[in-house]
Target: Probable endolytic peptidoglycan transglycosylase RlpA
Amino acid sequence: MRWLVLILIGALLASCAQPHGNYHGYMTRSYTVRGRTYHPMGVDQALGYGEVGTASWYDESSFFGLKRGTTSLGEKVMPWHNIAAHKTLPLPCVVKVTNMENGKSVKCRVNDRGPFIGDRIIDLSPRAAKKIGFRDQGLATVQVEVLSVGDGKYKRTPRRKWFFGIF
Model:
């Protein structure tokens, strides 16, 4: 009986970890949804990406119902993950999403494709939407900025600031 309890606790702890998978590098493979083909950005373009638009949130997970969704990278989706879906960013990447109404921000790991509804630019997990204060509303105007691409090897470099006209 003790072994069974230990195994169950170990499985629960393993499923609680943040989704990182064993994915190395990044994915920019083109794909087609509902007859439309999408061509993801390259690393350099993604590292310079910033956009303001409409965000929504989605929930493809369940904890006690034992149903778990998976992302385009094959990673498990749990309600407490700060993850996101984007149509054309390389997978995976890390973005900073800022709610333009209240200024709250959250870092999310983009590991899925979407949203494919209207003019929305990003779908967030329930936890991420709650952190920036729009889970109850369903939609928000946000700013999205890429921080890194892939396994973290590719990062946005800070813009140089002018110092007495030298730089």
Remarks:
- The first helix runs from residue 2 to 16.
